[in-house]
Amino acid sequence: MSTPVLTAAPSAEQPASFRRDYLGDLYLYNWKQFSWRVPLMCLSAIALCLGIGIAAGHPGGGLIAAGGAMTVGFGAMQSIDGSRFVPMIGASVGMALSTLIGMVAGHQNYFLLVTCAVWGFGYGLLTTRAAGVSWVGQQCVVTLLVASAYPFGFRQAAIRASLVLAGGGVQILFTSIQLRVVRTLHRDLYPFMRHSIEEKTAFRVAMGASFRQVLGEGAPPNPVFHFGLRLAVVLALSAEIYRRMQVPSGYWIPMTALLVLKPAFNETVKRALARIAGTLVGAVLTSYLVAHLQPTPVMLAVLVVLFAFLSYSMLNVNYAFFTMFLTAYIVFLLALANLPGPVVAHRRALCTITGGVLALVVHLDAIRRWRRRATRHSLQPVQND
């Protein structure tokens, strides 16, 4: 469920972005980035989690663990200090904690809005860090949103969090075995702990700077702060829509808003259009396949693994195609839990459109406010010494 990371370097409201290409993520293909070696490595962990769940008569538990393995597998394509296992370890731990908090928060009260805003703002601040670090933060927010669709008590939340952690652990173990670095895997635990301390310190400093800006203590304008604030607003608004819908799959609304919102407006438009188009095509494709194939659990597991491979492979090739394959993967994965595929596909398409449009509206409102503020400052009289 993950996507390429955000890098919040440019200013949040760049007028020139209106003149840029909005459809690039639909028709531009970077086939040099097509990968099959690492995706194939990541499939064995997903297949094992699904196989154990089906064989044990608990496909739901298998799909939860497989979801953890799938997401952590994307971490193998990230890097922190030259290590691909540090982001994988960070994602496993962060996703487990976010699952626990998200399930306890649920989607039936206002606590979800506060949690989403805090998680979104925190992720916005992390976008200035290393790409692997911001990717871990993104997965934590996504996992929080997904987990909120299943409000349970602490015990059930702990079980689901353990399954997510187990799936991530299996992925890390299998990937390290296939890369023949299993004997040195323990060495990545030290960099992980060191980075955790460093990121905690950096995050505290960023939060302090953000509060100084809110209090107007003379801090210079910070585009990262504004981007984090915009993420907090759009996640709170979309979470409220999701909460009022009382539909578990409504978490796709804030999740889409999170994934498509970018610092520059043209990037937000490109991602929104590509994600909506890819989701709609993927929803139609999976609905057709489920209706005509009437797949058994084993066939569903095979389809899950197939579309997981295609999602991994197309991650950096074309965002619309990546989204299409990811949609198919999610629909078939949820079908293992006896959720009707066409219904899931329809809801995902509707929620994706809603989340994408909401992200665009919030970004347009931010540009409107920025231009009004710039105009007001330009009209102020210049004081000579």
The run of helices and strands is HHHHHHHHHHHHHH
Report the major sheet.
none
Uncertain runs with pLDDT below 50, 5 residues or more? Answer: 1-19
Work out the helicity level: over 70%
Radius of gyration: 21 Å
Distance between the termini: 57 Å
- How many helices does DSSP assign? 14
User: Quick one: how many beta strands?
Assistant: 0
Give the mean pLDDT: 81
Give structural notes:
There is one protein chain. The protein starts with 23 loop residues before the first helix and ends in a 7-residue tail after the last helix. With 385 residues, it is mainly α. It has one domain (15-375). The protein has helices at 24-27, 37-55, 59-75, 85-105, 111-126, 131-147, 154-178, 189-214, 223-245, 252-260, 265-293, 297-313, 319-335, 341-378. Helix content is 72%, strand content 0%. Helix 9 runs antiparallel to helix 10 and helix 10 packs across helix 14 (341-378). The model is unreliable at 1-19 (pLDDT under 50).
